[in-house]
Batch of 3 targets.
Target 1
Amino acid sequence: MDQPVIALKIDVDTYIGTRDGVPRLLEILERFGIRATFYFSMGPDNSGKAIRRIFTRKGFLKKQLRNKAPSAYGLRTMLYGTLLPAPMIAASFPGILKETERKGHEVGIHCWDHVKWHDFLPWLPKPITALELGRAFSLFEEILGRRAKTTAAPGWTVSADSLEIQDALRLSHCSDARGYAPFYPVMGGKRFRTLQIPTTWPTADEILGENGITADTINDHYLTLLTPGLNVHTIHAEMEGRGLASCFTDLLERLLARGVRFVTLAEAAQQFGHDAGNSPLAMGELPGRAGEVAIQGHA
Ligand SMILES: [Zn+2]
């Protein structure tokens, strides 16, 4: 009963991550009989525009250099939306979304335009935010033939507006925050009714290069974080599905050897969501990450 449980949350941010990272992850997960939750970016890949964060976000350039971002994401990805046109992601690979669902994974929506949401959410008028999600939802339904039931905000960026729009979409659960346990968010004096399943572990890009952690030792670090009950680990198709694929495979082997049970976020919501209370949710800083993320506070 104290068995550790892990929900793997897989963010798919880019065209390349969808094309190359997702099939690789599907193959790795199938090998171990693990089902996970994939959140797809549905619209244009404007990754090149993220370059402007060098000028607007303290720590962004340092993080990109530490992660060797150009080699992790590929040079073309770094130019999409600037020198190269932004390719449409889900519309280019509808078969990959279908295949992910067919293999038994949970499929949800990350966003329409990752860079726009991540960089501009606080300044977007509410109808524009609703339109961003609306476009993603309609393409999702066109491809998978059903309505999406879950979303995960790009870069863990939320606002009271985005939470209100989520409530209106009547989703079963979302994963927009960093925190410690499932909760109902309270933001801007309002309590929202969509269950949040927060990410409890740091991402690879946050801890690689910090405190001497390398790809060879990162899994030792992750094993120290494993707790009884629900753990939520966010990985990226662009990283764990590409350059970090063998490292991620090793992590799964070691977690299974420890008796970890893997669930989707929908299953986590069912199994761990019943006693969720209200928690304040606010944007704040996390070690190793440039800019702010939504963090679950203590009630
Ligand atoms: Zn993302």
Target 2
Amino acid sequence: MTTLKPVFHSVPNVPPRQIALLRNATLADGRRVDVVLDGSVVAAVADAGTPASGVAGPEAVLDLDGYLLLTAPAEPHAHLDKALSFDLVRPPLGDLPSAIEAWVAYAQTMSVDSIVERARTQALAMLAQGITAIRSHVDVHPDNPTRSAEALVRVREELAGLVDLELVALCSSLTGDDGLEEALDLGLDLVGGAPHLAEDPYADLHRLLAIAERRGLGVDLHTDESLDGPVTLDEYARTVRDWPRDREYSAGHCCRLGTLDAERRDAIVADVKAADLGIISLPITNLYLQGWQHEVSTPRGLTALRALLDAGVRVAAGADNVRDPFNPVGRSDALETASLLMTVAHLTPEEAYHLVSDGARSVMGLPVAGPVPGARAELLAVRAVNLLDAIANAPADRIVIHAGRLVAQTRVERFVAAPAALASPAALAAPATTADPVVQAAPTA
Ligand SMILES: [Zn+2]
């Protein structure tokens, strides 16, 4: 039986450290700067070497020479209660219905504690990669509507101060309103579901929206996650168009939109834009789950990203599932998602990184962040010369700052033998080294 402990068993238990100054960082636009932090906010960004006044001791200063400084990624669509279960479930490789079948059978056997352990491990793995905000869907199953909610609310409390966690009640169409209300009562933040899987998608869509409206909650629905199934996105957009804007409305997947002819697609995109509905694309999971029935010219299972971006729709991207029946692989890394967006959706590096960082934060209703005066100090420094280098290589060397505090750092030392003509005797005598362990802030709870 696979255990989860080895992933992080050697992580030193270090408290988060307040940072006041980041020196010699390279920004995505090529500028070399010093960044002054004031608590959880970026106070100033100046040319590197500009004297900063009032900076505290050396423990509050990080030298980012050789690092690219970015807005920290946010994961707009995770399933922390399912993550890292692949080796426990041992499902067959396959499409969405087969993954659901394998998961539902396994889910009966889970305890709250076992969910907490996997969810916490996964959230910390994401934090180590630089993700400082996560929106996770939480199963609300008819047989036990509150088990996952209980677990994820506990994880949210444990990780407070390290990562911002938003929880969405993922309500099955078979779960009654009472079950959903019970799960929401535990403290979940948004109403979710998957109306496209219901026997009557429109009835389920309106049932979920009515509960959200009554409770004054935002909505994030798994929407039209198929290549040939129902289209509900337009109905969703038109329904919430005039609803209060003090909460977020978003739709994940929307693969079906990517299969429609241009005229119909553009009409729906106009509805989405008019409603200011956020769209969340999930390339790695939908590349895995969709297309199994297409032996040749296998379709990509992605939404209409270019049309959405051209229309000015707020778009985010994430990984969705990680190492569970819905996606056996994945590295918990937004740079992996960004790389896929360039390869399969033909986005530019800037567009791709926007979708996993600023775009994701916007769809999640989070304040603006990044190396900009006045923004939240949610920052990822990665050892790279520019954005394309970071996306292409996804270097492991990273420094992660959440709310102005250092919460994770990974250092890798690499040794490569050189041709004899180039190698110095000293270099050849140096021993090979292995990666240092990840250094990461631990939850205090
Ligand atoms: Zn999902």
Target 3
Amino acid sequence: MMMQMLRNRLLLVVLLFVPLAGFAHVGSSDVYYDGYAGQYHLLVTVRPPSVIPGVAEIQVRSAANDLGQVEILPLRMVGPGADLAPRPDVAERSSADPQLYSGHLWMMDRGSWRVQVNVDGQHGKAQMAVPVPAVSMNSASMQKSLRGLLGVLGFLLVAGFVGIVGAANREAKLDPDKDPTPGQKLRGTIAMVFTAFLMFGVLFSGNRWWGKEAKDNARLSYRLPHVQASLQAATLQLHLENPNESSQFTQFGTERIDRLRLDDLIPDHGHLMHLFLVRISDMKSLWHLHPNQDQTGEFSQVLPSLPAGHYRIYADIVHHTGFPETEVGEIDLPAIAGQSPNGDDSGGAALSAGDKVSQLSDGYRMVWERDATALKTKQPIWFRFRIEDQNGKPATDVEDYMGMAGHAAFIRDDGEVFAHVHPSGSVPMAAAEMAQKAGSAANHASGTDMTMDMTMMNHGTPSAEVAFPYGFSQPGDYHIYVQVKRGGRVETGAFTAHVEN
Ligand SMILES: [Cu+2]
């Protein structure tokens, strides 16, 4: 028990020296969520740690100046820990910006979490919850300079120890100003050799112990899952992999309820999978499709007409725990003469992206309402888009598309970053709903009546303007694809964005 604790402490100390890399799913680990706690309109940003256990950074911004105190606490989404609320932390109110609160939370385990936000203010108490997937993206390695410094210090420590033992055996019983006898010298040398061997043994077994620990830890790092795609006639066949599968039971023999499996997928706004296909060479052909599940891990999609090229594949799925994954893949496609997209499928073969304006059909336009300030990483930004008719008037026929006012995909031009975002933010709706329900169930059980109104989640009201809260984790050149439904068909606006660090 003591050893275990010591080991964890040691690991922790090492982890604290490691800079947080902010790399997840497909390079966009930060969570942005816009929603309501009762009548309070909040934008919550969660920056999960890149190594678990680790510290998540939480920011809560209220839309109006109506808040007093904000508390935050981390909870598991499912399983035994889901109802065991720890004592909440009080988020600190920014002195420069009274509508901004921030705090830190420890996430001790990998898996599906929710951050519960308890607020108190002008409209009484209320709460909401934000789903947060927590994974270790890497086994963080120590910085070279730190490794060198610790190595030198460690050597001095060992050499000093050997020297002390030698001196103690040689000269401890010596009177002042006397030289040691040959016998005492020999005794000292033997003691030093013996101590050196002993220290070598200790260091050697310590290193082996550490190496084993590091290997175990590395095995638990999250590996980006890949989808194998092949084409049969005009049908895309998809085979999902599950590289992060763990055993069904924990070391204590209890079932690992949140282990990743492929037979537990839940629909996210009506579909088990949201598939994005983008031709990386020019970013002009983008498709948002919804393949059918034929059996566990196997999906298929009849393709619409699309131009030949090398396509990147992003397959979004959500597990029963609310844990989202994006499986990535690539495929070379010939020109496909398929059917026109049906159902919720949509996209475009020749989208030309502007930095402010994107042409839609019938002379309509989509306008990105951006100001002149440069886009920077790690900032929550509202991306607002306005749909205009041929006369520049706001469109009046915008309607709901898959339960939402709009869908956006942020894709870096090299394909290494991908995020599927909604007016409510970067979390899948299925996970967001699960987090709210878990919260209200727990409150109900504890006798606290804080009703949470599902309709208060921000799906966005279909109108001529649609807005998405999101922030870039990494700099680079991006394409932003914004999809809205207008006059019975889905339109895709495309924009370019340069993001600075
Ligand atoms: Cu969507």
